[in-house]
Amino acid sequence: MASLQNLKAPTLMSKKTQKTVQADEDDVIIDATALPSRTADQDDVAMEEDNTASDKPNFAPASAAELKKVVKGSRKIPIPPHRMSPLKRHWLEIYSPLVEHMKLQVRMNVKTKTVELKTSPQTEDEGSLQKGADFLRAFALGFEVEDAMALLRLDDIFLDTFEIKDVKTLHGDHLARAIGRIAGRDGKTKFTIENASKTRIVLADTKIHILGSFQNIKIARDAVVSLILGSPPGKVYATLRTISARMKERF
């Protein structure tokens, strides 16, 4: 009997504890009507504080005169000694587009062998100074005036320069043969690469300058690199032929 009483005792105690816990939980519940409510004045004050916190500085729109304003600047483009005579000979062709179209001030300094460019009050485009400098730099590298003038007229024309030793280290007769493979007999190979890739190439000893758009420069550079590495011109011609056919189909 004693053992039965001992077994019943904890069950009774557990029932009592469950009732007390439920009663405590009921006491914790808060009545919603007892919560304090915000008045209209308090809401207005809070809205004003949010507005003041989110206020940002307001700037007036830029005027047309400020948008067209060009920052003053100047450039000095060095001319190699062997390009001074062509510069003097074609000075009128070089001078005219820079002054008439780019609205720049140009001066040839014979003592320092440089061409100086400067913006004028009539300059309208901010990129005129950079375009003029690229135009003169291309002429100094050996390009014709008509070819270098593409840098003034078009925005997607670039100038790429690399050396033969950047591709492969060659010396003596091996270097001369590599230059001969690039040029070809009477410049035939160079002209073929130019016509197929729609670029202009200048061979200046071991340096190679390519003028054209980004994709066309890549095509011409790959052909020149293949010739430097020893590919026969016939294989390069076949590759250029397929590439030019794809370019014609694309356009």
| Gross geometry | extended
What is the CATH C-level name of the largest domain? Alpha Beta
Helix content percent band: 55-70%
Cα Rg: 40 Å
Helical region count? 13
Q: What is the first-to-last residue Cα distance? A: 106 Å
Description:
One of its GO terms (molecular function) is unfolded protein binding. It is found in: Nucleus, Nucleolus. Keywords: Nucleus, RNA-binding. With 251 residues, this protein is an alpha+beta fold. It folds into 2 domains: 70-154, 2-Layer Sandwich (Ribosomal Protein S8, Chain: A, domain 1), CATH 3.30.1370.10; 159-250, Ribosomal Protein S8, Chain: A, domain 1 (2-Layer Sandwich), CATH 3.30.1370.10. The protein is built from 13 helices and 6 strands. It has a 3-stranded antiparallel sheet. Strand 5 and strand 6 (207-212) form a beta hairpin.
Write the layout of secondary structure elements.
Elements: H1 2-28, H2 40-54, H3 64-68, E1 74-78, H4 84-89, H5 91-100, E2 104-109, E3 114-119, H6 128-141, H7 145-148, H8 150-153, E4 158-163, H9 164-167, H10 173-183, H11 188-197, E5 200-204, E6 207-212, H12 214-228, H13 233-250
Antiparallel strand pairs: 1-3, 2-3, 4-6, 5-6
Helix pairs in contact: 11-12, 11-13, 12-13
